[in-house]
Amino acid sequence: MKLWGGRFTKSTDSFTDHFHSSISFDSRMYHEDITGSMAHAAMLGKQGIIPKEDSDLIIKTLQEILTDIENGHITFDEKAEDIHMNVESILISRIGDVGKRLHTGRSRNDQVALDTRMYTKKEIKAIQALVKELMTVLNSLAEKHTETIMPGYTHLQRAQPVTLAHHLLAYIEMFKRDYDRLADSYKRTDVLPLGSGALATTTYPLDREFVAKQLGFSAITQNSMDGVSDRDFCIELVSDLSILMMHLSRFCEEIILWSSHEFRFIELDDAYSTGSSIMPQKKNPDMAELIRGKTGRVYGHLMGFLTTMKGLPLAYNKDMQEDKEALFDAIDTIKMCVPVFTNMIATVTVREHNMLEAAKGGFTNATDAADWLVKQGVPFRDAHEIIGKLVLYCIQNNTNLDDLSLEEYKAISPVFDESVYAAISVKQCVEARNVIGGPAKSVTTMAIEANKAYLRSLV
Q1: Structural domains counted in the chain
Q2: Which one from 14, 218, 276, 419 is the annotated catalytic residue?
Q3: Could you tell me if 151 and 358 are in contact, meaning their C-beta atoms sit under 8 angstroms apart?
Q4: How far is Cα 165 from Cα 76, in angstroms, rounded to an integer?
Q5: Domain check: are 303 and 260 in the same one?
Q6: Model confidence pLDDT, tens digit, residues 195-236
Q7: Does residue 405 share a domain with residue 273?
């Protein structure tokens, strides 16, 4: 017999039971469901809505059920539909009519909203811890490579020399924003919906503030219809996770390129690579490729979520049961990808010589040559044209700016003298860029120390 079956004259079809049930995926919220029910029962007893001794017995039995679930002694029933009805059915089977008092003054609509918020809060904190560890690893790696010169790119073409530290610090800035977005999302998740009822609260004298305090919520919802139908906090989190995955995917793309024979900037540890079933020489960056691929999976959940919610009238609709699989899988995907990525980057071998040689090629010092001319009084646009002609000359003669003779320089512009060679060395190109945010060792060292302080400040 369904707990809601009084109005019905026959049972639901067996296939309908399966179609309607969510216990296969929402059972992971058993801890939140039981904890929320214990707080609700405590409030009912405190307010005299149910006898205090009934409240105490319900709480005691719920704790026993929680222990039994965690010890694997309980099997959930699909016919009970969801985690809420499963727990309540088990409670009633153990203490009879007293257990039937638990649902006084609440609905599954505000109950599931509560469970989802509690679960999401917990997972946000867990993901933040993973992102913090990733930033810590990247910052430590950057500290080792403040003098490892490599080419910086635009349009995937060699552009200007930077350092590996500078490159890594760019990703730390992205992950800082991810961490902060998660913290911001937590604030909007940390709102108690219980007490909203089905959509219009209840006639019982609930103490919602008491329940919020018991469950560690910082606020309560201010409109009951919104309280049961709001899934913005889920969408916001999946959006934040999509951006985080995008950052991981961009980094993975570079790791895939850098580990190729064409670049040879890095070598991935064997523990984070795979081989080929037919080509014995292969060492594939499969972990990076999988993370890149799983980014689309999280994006898909975001679009599915938005599409599910876009046409729903107030208040609760069964469509909203579709929120959990998208939310859970997005969270699970992130919690797999971030640790794998962190360990992969922590164990990478950097080929410093190859990075340096690449930085010396591709005319990455051309801008510095133009800047040298500007410092000699040549207008920048004229300097730009002069260096462009020099680059063309180098291409035609299969050489580079460093190897041109002074006579060749002067043939393009008489302004050149011997001091240009020092100005266009890749080391000088990097060290001269000591503006805040630049690649010079003095600047990246300050950024690394600032990151250490930032990471220490995170809870």
Answers
A1: 3
A2: 276
A3: yes
A4: 52
A5: yes
A6: 999 999 999 999 999 999 999 999 999 999 999 999 999 999
A7: no
Domain co-membership, 304 together with 189: yes
Helix axes 83-95, 108-144, angle to 10 degrees: 120
Pair (304, 383) in one structural domain: no
Q: What is the pLDDT of residues 287-324, one digit of tens each?
A: 999 999 999 999 999 999 999 999 999 999 999 999 99
- CATH number for the domain that contains residue 89: 1.10.275.10
Cis amide prior to 315 (ω within 30 degrees) = yes
Residue at a domain's end among 357, 384, 418: 357
Options 73, 155, 261, 405, the catalytic residue: 155
Kindly state whether residues 267 and 215 are assigned to the same domain. yes
Q: With bands split at pLDDT 50, 70 and 90, how would you rate the model's confidence at 79?
A: confident
How many other CB atoms are found less than 10 A from the CB of residue 15?
8
- Mean pLDDT to the nearest integer, 80-85: 91
Question: In one letter, which amino acid is 116?
Answer: T
The CA distance from 433 to 120, in Å, is 44
pTM across the whole model: 0.93
What is the domain range of residue 70? 13-104
- Residue 384 designated active-site: no
Is 73 annotated as catalytic?
A: no
Tell me the C-alpha distance between 272 and 269, whole Å: 6
| Cβ neighbours for 422, distance < 8 A, ≥ 6 positions apart | 428
Q: Assess contact for 104 and 204: CB atoms under 8 A.
A: yes
